[in-house]
Structures are given as C-alpha cells and as structure tokens.
Design brief:
The complex is a heterodimer of chains A (306) and B (314). Chain A has eleven helices and two strands; from the N terminus they run H-H-H-H-E-E-H-H-H-H-H-H-H. By secondary structure, chain A is mostly helical. Chain A has one domain: ABC transporter involved in vitamin B12 uptake, BtuC, CATH 1.10.3470. In chain A, strands 1-2 form a two-stranded antiparallel ribbon. In chain A, helix 1 packs antiparallel against helix 10. In chain B, 50% of the residues are buried. Chain B has a two-stranded antiparallel ribbon. Chain B contains 13 helices and two strands; from the N terminus they run αααααβααααβαααα. Chain B has a domain of 209 residues. The chains are: A mainly alpha (306), B mainly alpha (314).
C-alpha cells in the first residue's frame, strides 16, 4: 500500500518538475543570454492557461485551443519585449525587477477584468481523460503522464537546439560575449527577441498543459514564478541542463516533502504535532535546499561557462 | 545656515507636514485621515530601513517584508497569549528580527548581485510559509487582535491620534539615527563596499561585517514598523510577508530616490496616496497602477527626491 502511494507521489513530483522546467527553461535562457531578470515570466504561464481555456471553449476542442493559444502566447511575449523589456536590458537588475513587477500587476488585473476573479475550468481531451494501470492495482491519470512525456520531449528538443544547431550556437555565444557576436555581423537584438518570445511560449505551453488539472485563476503565476527562480538559481543561471535537473529535484522534493514530512515526524512527535510541524516544514524544504546550494556552490549546480 | 536650509528643506518640510496632520485631520473625515496617514508613516519607516540596505549598501533585499511580518506576528502571538504590553511586543519583535537577520544574513552576505536578491527572497518565503502553517494563530487566515498594545497597563494607543504620533515619533527617531549612521565611518565603509568591495578589502575592511551589521539594523527597524502596522490594522496575517509586499517596499525606495533616506518617506507617501486614490476611482485600479510603475522606473531616474531637489545640490 505504502509503496504504491509513494510511486504515485513520485510521479506527481515528476509531473510538477517538468512543468517547472518548462517555465524555468525560458527564464534561464533570458537570464543567461540577456542578463535580464524577468519577474513577469510567471504571468506568461497564467496567460497560456487562460488563452487555452478561452480558445478551447470557443472551438470546443482542447487541441485546437492549444494550437491557437501557443502563437497567441508568443505574440504577447514579443509585444511585451518590444514595448517594455527592450528598454531595460542596459538597466540595473533593480530596475528590471521593478518594471517587470509592474507588468505582473498590469497583466494580472487585465486577466481579472476579462475573465473575472473566479477560477475557470478546462475540459480535458476525451481520449486522454482516463486512467491506466501502471502497476498491479495502481491507476494513474493518463493526462499527467502526457504532461511528463511532453516535458521530457521539450527538454530533449531544447538541449539539441542549444548545443547542436546554429541558432543554439549563436545563443551560447551571445551569452558569453554579446558585443563580439554583434561585431561579427549577427543581429543580436533579433536573437534576443527570438529567445524571449520562445521562452514566453514555453511558459504558455506549461500553463496550457496544467489548465485541465488545476484551476485557472489570476494569481496562478505568482507562486510558481518564485519556484522557477529557485530552480534556475540551484541549476545555475543560463544552463538548460541545470534547469532540467534542478526542476525535477525541486518537483520531487516539494511533492515528496509534503507527503513524507508528516509521516517521518510521526516517529518523533505525537500525530497532531507531527502533522502541524510537517505542514510547516514541507513548503520550506525547497527554500532550505536553495539556501544550502547557494552556500556551498554559489554559482549553482551546473554553472554556465562564461 | 541659509545654504543648509536650502539643502535640507525637503526633509524638514516633510516632517513638518506630517506633524501637522493631527491638527488638520479634524477638518475632514478624521479617523479615515489618521488611519491612512498612520499607514503611510509605518510603511515609510519600513522603506527607510530598506533604504539603508539598498541605497547605502547596494544590497537589494527581496525579503524585507519578512521583518515587517516578524514585528506584526510578535504583537499577534503575544496578544493571543494574553500579553498586551507594548514594551514586551517591541522587545520580542526586535529580538526576533535580530535573530532572523543574523541567521539569514550570515548566509546571504556570502552571495552578491542576483544571487543575493534570490536568497533573501527565499528566506522571506520560508518565513511566509511558516506563518501560514501556524494553525494555532490562524494559519492562512491570520488573527484579529483583541485590542491595541498597552503602555504600562494603560490603553493610551487606543486613540488614533496617539498611535499616529507614536508612529511619527518612531519615524523621526529612525530617520535621525540612520542619518547619523550614514554619515559615520560605518556608513562610509558601507558605501565604499557597495562601490568597490575589492578596494575596501585592500585597505583593510571586511565588507561582510559591515553589511551584516547594516542588515541587522535594518531588520530591527522594520520589526518596529511591523509592531506599529499590526496596531494600526488590528489584524495580523501571512499576507504581510508575501513577496509582493517586499517588491512594493523596494519600489517605494526606488520611487523616492535611492540612498537619500527622506526619499523613502516621499516614496511611501506617493505610493500609498496613488494606491488609495486609484482604488477609489475604480475596482480595477491596478490596470493603471502597473503601467505607472513601469513608467516611473523607465523615466523617473533619481526618484522623486531627485526631481524635487534638482539644482539645489551643494
């Protein structure tokens, strides 16, 4: 009984981890390539979820909704880059934090004006809404497996793009020495814009994938944004590989911590105190992990080469 | 004297105007004005303490609301346990904030730049989740205070005017203290470490100690602001320590003008008045507030204090 429960929690942790990865991937690229802190990245995740909800409701099909939501998320990302972020690359990190904080406030309220504050639901595609037996007596929802597969697929695709294509090479070169790349005749501004829009679309994709299993609501991007930052700091800023490992690590630690902490503490404390302390400790675990990582390896687990 | 007056007119005028509030408040809706102004003064106090870190030390702490929360929770928890004495509230708040600052600062000060922003954010979040898990004290929902803190067994703070004056007194004391600190050798070393840590180390100072001390002072002042805030709202909840509150505090400091100290007060007045006016105008006031924030960052470099004193520099 306990081991099947544990297996479910591990799968849930993986699913949460790949979602974190999809968000953190864009964040770490933007951070690594442009040295730009984008707090508004979590909003892209929320926008992706809302757009999917709206388009799926309008067309009656989740897949059509997703297909329309992705380019729309890309366009919103590009528009933000053009209007606001472009003017901030040369500024201090402090200014970047503040201006993107303003974008969060604006888009959060815009979403509230269009769709209201109440959470809205999204229909899952019919064919994938069931559960399958992954071990004897253990049913697991197919959709969560689809999310895990999609996340792993995107991870592999990104790794290949960054390390084995020409555009990936330019990205890595831009990250280590932008003026030099520019002097060699590459339009670095265009490259930045592309990276930015692509990162925004990935976050939107993450939002679209979780829309059927979570409630789509205005504040949904805020909490996960902070976790995505934890991921890229632990993984090493600018490193896709680091983001991948750290995202899965954080997903597992957070999910298993909430499950195991009260159980383990029950060995030491009486049940009521154990569940209280466990609930207090579990959400803190990832932040403790981050503090310890920064203390031991200030540049993260896989620091990008400069 | 005249030159000094020209340089100091802004802080002088600010404190004079704030001191006139209790006299002028009866002309309008008195309790509303006093509660709004108390909130402004308390937030100004918190922003002032943050300005020591960001403006003087170049240390962008993204977890400053945690210190505010420590002060608020000191009042909330002690009151719930039957201790209503304001002196006890202040002592516990300051001691707890000092402990928190020493423990987290010792780790955070080993990093710099973006990593410092992120690690202070992480510590702030840790405290936030701790507060949501305090189910004995309301958990997520927070606790309503039975009444304001008492002073020597008497409920003098029950009067809105007295609470306002207490907050203003704390703000003035903190302002004068931080000015002394900024002008002292300690303050100079802090600024030196902000501009060039390597050089400071070469001439024999360890930035770590000075930064940690600044972090400690800043946290203790913010905890005092937290005690006052809890008394003003009569309510304590984890929302006080949410990361968005830390973001707002940073914004107030930058809006006012980094490192000028009185800029933080100016920023708090502007921020809360704008929030108050816009929220009366429409339920969706944030749709205007967000872009205003962005425009302020893009175009108002040097902050409000910089705009107002342009040309008056000695």
């Amino acid at each position: 009984m306990s081991s099947t429960l544990l297996l479910i929690q591990i799968l849930n942790g993986l699913q949460f981890g790949v979602i974190l990865f999809l968000i953190a991937a864009g964040l770490t690229l933007v951070f690594g390539v442009m040295d730009f802190i984008n707090l508004a990245h979590g909003v892209q995740y929320m926008v992706g979820a809302y757009l999917t909800a709206a388009f799926a409701a309008a067309t009656g099909s989740f897949w059509l909704g997703l297909a329309l939501a992705l380019p729309a998320a890309l366009l919103i990302g590009l528009a933000l880059e053009l209007l606001v972020f472009r003017h901030l690359y040369e500024r201090s990190h402090l200014d970047q934090v503040l201006a993107t904080f303003g974008v969060i406030i604006f888009l959060g309220e815009a979403v509230r004006m269009v769709w209201g504050s109440a959470p809205i639901g999204v229909e899952m595609p019919e064919a994938l809404s069931g559960s399958i037996e992954i071990a004897p007596g253990l049913l697991y929802p197919v959709w969560r497996l689809v999310i895990i597969a999609a996340g792993l697929g995107v991870g592999i695709g990104l790794y290949l793009t960054v390390h084995h294509t020409r555009i990936g090479m330019l990205m890595r070169a831009g990250a280590s020495n932008a003026p030099m790349v520019s002097a060699l005749g590459v339009d670095i501004r265009l490259l930045f814009t592309l990276v930015f829009g692509f990162g925004a679309m990935l976050a939107g994709f993450a939002g679209a994938m979780v829309a059927p299993i979570l409630s789509v609501e205005p504040g949904m991007g805020d909490g996960i944004l902070i976790l995505a930052f934890v991921v890229i700091v632990i993984g090493g800023i600018g490193s896709i590989r680091g983001a991948f490992v750290a995202a899965l690590l954080i997903g597992l630690v957070d999910t298993l911590g909430r499950f195991l902490a009260p159980m383990l503490l029950r060995l030491l404390l009486d049940p009521a105190a154990a569940s209280q302390t466990g609930r207090a400790l579990a959400p803190m675990l990832v932040y403790i992990l981050m503090a310890v990582t920064l203390f031991v390896r200030p540049a993260g687990l896989f620091p990008a080469r400069r | 004297m005249a030159r000094r007056l020209r340089r100091e007119w802004l802080p002088l005028g600010l404190f004079l105007a704030l001191a006139l509030v209790p006299v002028l408040a009866p002309l309008g809706p008195q309790s509303f004005i006093l509660s709004l102004m108390t909130r402004i003064v308390v937030v100004a106090l918190a922003a002032l303490s943050l300005d020591l870190l960001i403006g003087k030390g170049g240390l962008v702490s993204f977890g400053h609301a945690a210190c505010l929360g420590i002060g608020a929770y000191a009042v909330g928890i002690l009151s719930a346990e039957g201790v209503t004495d304001g002196g006890a509230h202040l002592a516990v708040a300051i001691a707890a904030a000092a402990f928190f600052a020493l423990a987290t600062g010792a780790v955070a000060m080993r990093t710099d730049g973006v990593h410092f922003i992120m690690i202070t954010l992480a510590f702030g979040q840790m405290l936030y989740f701790l507060a949501t898990a305090l189910s004995a004290y309301g958990g997520d929902d927070g606790i309503t205070l039975p009444g304001r803190s008492t002073v020597l067994g008497r409920d003098v703070l029950a009067s809105d005017t007295v609470l306002y004056l207490a907050a203003l007194g704390a703000l003035l004391a903190a302002y004068l203290l931080l000015r002394r600190i900024a002008a002292s050798r300690f303050g100079r070393v802090l600024e030196g470490a902000r501009d060039n840590p390597v050089r400071m180390e070469a001439i024999g100072f360890r930035p770590f100690r000075f930064r940690l001390a600044a972090y400690l002072i800043s946290a203790m002042i913010a905890a005092v602001a937290g005690v006052l805030l809890a008394n003003q709202t009569g309510f304590v909840s984890p929302a006080t320590m949410a990361w968005q509150r830390s973001g707002e505090l940073i914004f107030i400091v930058v809006l006012g003008g980094l490192g000028s100290l009185h800029g933080a007060i100016l920023g708090a007045i502007a921020f809360i008045l704008a929030e108050e006016l816009l929220s009366h105008w429409s339920e969706h006031w944030r749709i205007v507030f967000g872009p205003l924030l962005i425009l302020a960052v893009l175009f108002a470099r040097g902050g409000l204090a910089g705009l107002l004193t342009k040309g008056a520099r000695p």
